[in-house]
Specification:
Helix 1 (13-24) crosses helix 8, helix 2 (31-41) packs across helix 3 and helix 9 packs across helix 10 (302-312). Among the domains are: 2-126 and 163-231, P-loop containing nucleotide triphosphate hydrolases (Rossmann fold); 334-374. It is built from twelve helices and eight strands. It has helices spanning 13-24, 31-41, 44-54, 61-72, 90-102, 117-125, 165-188, 201-212, 227-298, 302-312, 316-357, 359-374, and strands at 2-7, 28-30, 81-84, 109-114, 127-130, 136-138, 157-158, 192-196. The strands form two sheets. The protein has a five-stranded parallel sheet with strand order 2-3-1-4-8, sandwiched between helices. A three-stranded antiparallel sheet has the order 6-5-7. It is elongated and about 160 Å long. By secondary structure, the protein is α/β, with parallel strands linked by helices. The chain binds adenosine monophosphate (AMP). Residues 9, 31-32, 35, 52-53, 56-59, 64, 85-86, 88, 92, 162, 171 line the site of adenosine monophosphate.
Length: 375
C-alpha cells in the first residue's frame, strides 16, 4: 500500500506511521527523520538543511524530492510505503505524483490526522525521541517508566531542538500556508481520508486500521523499478519532453512561415506598393515644385508649367537640372577667372617692383649699360 500521512506538527504522524509499519509491514519514510539523520551525519545535505530546520522552515523542495526519489526506489518500498512529513506543499505533491506516475505506482490514499492547537502544543513540547531506536513518547500524555530513558530499548531520550514553543508556532504557520494547498490538491483527487488524531494512540490507530483495511491493493503489480531504472526513465522522460517541445517548436516554426507567407506576403506587397506609391508621389511633388519654380522664374504661365510637368517626367527634369548645374558651374568659373586675372596682374606688378628695387638687378642693368657704352 502506498500512502501519505499528513497532519500538523505534533499530530502524531510519526507515532502512527511506526504502528502502521509494524502491523502492515509497509516501511515508514519520514523526510524529517532522513533530514535529522543527514544533519547528525554532517553530510552536505544535512548542513544545508540544518538552518531551515532549526528555524521551523521547510528545506528546499529539490532536496526533499531527491531524497524521496532515492528512498522509494529502494527494494523495501516495493511493497509500498507510508510517507510521513512528505509532501508538505503543492510542489512536492505534484512532484510525487509525477514520480509515481512514471513508476506506474499511484498513491492509494492520503490520511489526514486532525487535531486541535492546544493538544498539539502539549504533544510537541512534551515529545521525547529515543536516540537509539527512534521510539517516541510524551512526558505529559505517555511518560516513560524510567525518566529520560526509552521504554522500548532503554536508550536515552532526547528533546528535539525544533520542539520549543516559538519554533512550533512557526511550524504551524508554515503548515497552514504551505501544506493546506497540498491537502486541497489531494482532496480534488478524492484520495483524502480523515482521522481524528485526538485521544489515545491506540484509538487513533484503530481508526486508521479501519480505513487501511478497506484499501484495495493490486497483488499482481509488477515490481517497482530500481533507482537506476527510475533515473533512466526520468532521463528518457525528460528527453521525450525535450523532443516533444522541440517538435512543437519546429512545427510552430514550420507553420509560422506558412502563415507568414500567406499573411505577410500580401502585407509586404502592399507595403512595397505603398512605399513605392509614396516615393512616386513625393518625386512627382518635387518635380511639380521644381517646375513651378522654374516656370515662375521664367515668367511662364500655369499652362506651360503644367504642360512641361507632363513631359518633364522623362526629359524636362534633366534639362532643368542641366540648366541649374550649368549656371552653378559658369558663375563660379567667371568669378574665379576674374580673380585669377587680378592675381596675375598683381604678381606682374610685384615682379616689376622687385626687378626695380633689387640691387642685383640694378647691378646687372648697370653692367649691361656700361658694356653697351664701351661698344
Ligand atoms: P518533521 O519531523 O516531519 O516535523 O520535520 C522536521 C523538519 O524537517 C521540518 O520542520 C522541516 O524543516 C524539515 N522537513 C521535513 N520534511 C520536509 C519536507 N517534506 N519539506 C521540507 N522540509 C521538510
Amino acid at each position: 500500500m502506498r500512502m501519505v500521512l499528513i497532519g500538523a506538527p505534533g499530530s502524531g504522524k510519526g507515532t502512527q506511521a511506526q504502528l502502521i509499519e509494524k502491523k502492515y509491514g509497509t516501511p515508514q519514510i519520514s523526510t524529517g527523520d532522513l533530514l535529522r539523520q543527514a544533519v547528525a551525519d554532517g553530510t552536505p545535505l544535512g548542513l544545508q538543511a540544518k538552518t531551515a530546520m532549526d528555524m521551523g522552515q521547510l528545506v528546499s523542495d529539490d532536496m526533499v524530492i531527491g531524497m524521496i526519489r532515492d528512498r522509494i526506489s529502494r527494494p523495501d518500498a516495493n511493497k509500498g510505503f507510508i510517507l510521513d512529513g512528505f509532501p508538505r506543499n503543492l510542489v512536492q505533491a505534484q512532484a510525487l505524483d509525477q514520480l509515481l506516475h512514471l513508476m506506474n505506482r499511484p498513491l492509494h490514499l492520503v490520511l489526514l490526522l486532525e487535531t486541535d492547537f492546544d493538544a498539539l502544543m502539549q504533544r510537541i513540547t512534551g515529545r521525547r525521541t529515543c536516540r537509539s531506536c527512534g521510539h517516541i513518547c510524551n512526558i505529559y500524555t505517555d511518560p516513560p517508566k524510567m525518566d529520560g530513558h526509552c521504554d522500548e530499548c532503554g536508550g536515552n531520550l532526547r528533546h528535539r531542538v525544533d520542539d520549543n514553543e516559538e519554533i512550533i508556532s512557526n511550524r504551524f504557520r508554515v503548515y497552514e500556508a504551505q501544506t493546506t494547498p497540498a491537502i486541497a490538491y489531494y482532496r480534488e483527487q478524492n484520495k483524502v481520508r480523515v482521522v481524528q488524531g485526538i485521544g489515545q494512540e491506540e484509538d487513533v490507530f484503530a481508526a486508521i486500521c479501519q480505513i487501511l483495511d478497506t484499501v484495495k491493493v493490486d497483488p499482481d503489480e509488477v515490481p517497482m523499478p530500481t533507482l537506476d531504472e527510475l533515473e533512466q526513465m526520468i532521463i528518457e522522460k525528460s528527453q521525450e519532453a525535450l523532443i516533444e517541445k522541440a517538435g512543437s517548436e519546429v512545427a510552430g516554426v514550420k507553420q509560422r512561415p506558412k502563415q507568414k507567407s500567406a499573411r505577410t506576403k500580401p502585407v509586404i506587397k502592399a507595403t512595397t506598393k505603398k512605399q513605392s506609391g509614396v516615393k512616386k508621389k513625393s518625386a512627382a511633388k518635387k518635380v511639380v515644385v521644381k517646375k513651378k519654380t522654374t516656370a515662375k522664374k521664367k515668367g511662364d504661365t500655369k499652362k506651360t508649367a503644367v504642360r512641361k510637368k507632363t513631359g518633364i517626367k522623362k526629359t524636362a527634369p534633366k534639362k532643368v537640372a542641366n540648366k541649374k548645374t550649368g549656371v552653378k558651374k559658369v558663375m563660379p568659373n567667371k568669378a574665379a577667372g576674374k580673380k585669377k586675372a587680378v592675381k596675375k596682374k598683381v604678381v606682374k606688378r610685384k615682379k616689376a617692383a622687385v626687378k626695380k628695387k633689387s640691387p642685383a638687378r640694378k647691378k646687372a642693368v648697370v653692367k649691361k649699360k656700361t658694356a653697351r657704352r664701351k661698344k
